[in-house]
Amino acid sequence: MWALDHPYIPRAERLSTGTPLTLLVVLAAGAAVAMIAVQLGALPERSLRVIGVVAGHGALLATALAWAGVGPRPQVISVVMLGVASIAAAASPIGAVAYALPAMWVVWLSARGRLTTLGLGTPVTARALLAGALVGAGLSGHLLVSASRTLGVQVRVDHAAEVLSSMAYDVGANVLAAECFFRGALFNRAQRRWSFAAATGVATAAYVLRYVVDPLLPKNAELIVGAVFYLALLGAVNCWLLWWSESLVPGFVSALVFFAVYRTLGAG
To answer: Fewer C-beta neighbours within 10 Å, C or N terminus of the chain?
Structure first.
């Protein structure tokens, strides 16, 4: 009778359940050893960018895949592909086309229905894609105006090869890993436990922190404040896009448009 009066309610999984700890430890240890090697002169200083891509983006993407229920082998493959792409990009700007590898790997997993919990491989409407593009265009347009007025920054594409290389990096590493983890994995998992606002707050705070601690971000007070403002807006709106469209693709489009404009500000 007690069992009938008190039905069993399964406990919600912890937010970190399924995290690939072994792989993350290996990535962290490898990054530490490589950074020491750079300090000792055993590796060139340009290796730091490769280390950052493999350890940082690799950890985010592998964790997102793990939380989606994908096994260890595809996780390792994604990290290896990021490593290959970052090494190719470091060797030559045209080598950045190798960033198509991790992007195509995620597309392949999505097409096989293995990433539906991340919002990938599910139907997405043209209206949702347009909404994502408009969000990215709106935020980047505001960024252009405010940056030109307050910092005197202008759009420059005189180093077209570098701009295109950076955009390729966004497609296959920066935006790909961030959207898969912070929105597809973290926000999706958090909103099953808490309210939409709380889940958005957690995912967006983690997203902004990822960029604030990025050593590649210029350590200028005005730039950091601006980055926090725009990234917080982008992160929060992309959470809403995922919740509204039930697809990660509109947010991916939004972030790509935003970062594409940002890259032109940094060129030259």
So the answer is: N
Q: How confident is the model at residue 8 (pLDDT cuts 50, 70, 90)?
A: very low
Letter string b/e over residues 2-30, b meaning 16 or more CB atoms within 10 A of that residue's CB: eeeeeeeeeeeeeeeebbbeebbeebeeb
Both tokens of 81, joined, read 């592909």
Compute how many other C-beta atoms are within 10 angstroms of the C-beta atom of residue 137: 15
How far the first Cα of the chain sits from its last, in Å, is 75
Is the same domain home to 93 and 168? no
| Total domains present in the chain | 2
The pTM assigned to this predicted structure is: 0.91
Q: How would you label 142-175 residue by residue, b for 16+ Cβ within 10 Å and e otherwise? A: ebbeebeeeeebeeeeeeeebbbbbbbbbbbbbb
Q: Which of 67, 92, 110 is the last residue of a domain?
A: 110
Q: Are residues 230 and 261 in the same domain?
A: yes
Angle between helices 58-67 and 72-91 (to 10 degrees): 160
> Residue 73 — φ and ψ, nearest 5°?
-60, -50
Q: Is the dihedral of CA 216, 219, 221, 223 positive or negative?
A: negative
Looking at this protein, which amino acid is placed at residue 29?
A
Range of the domain at 173: 116-266
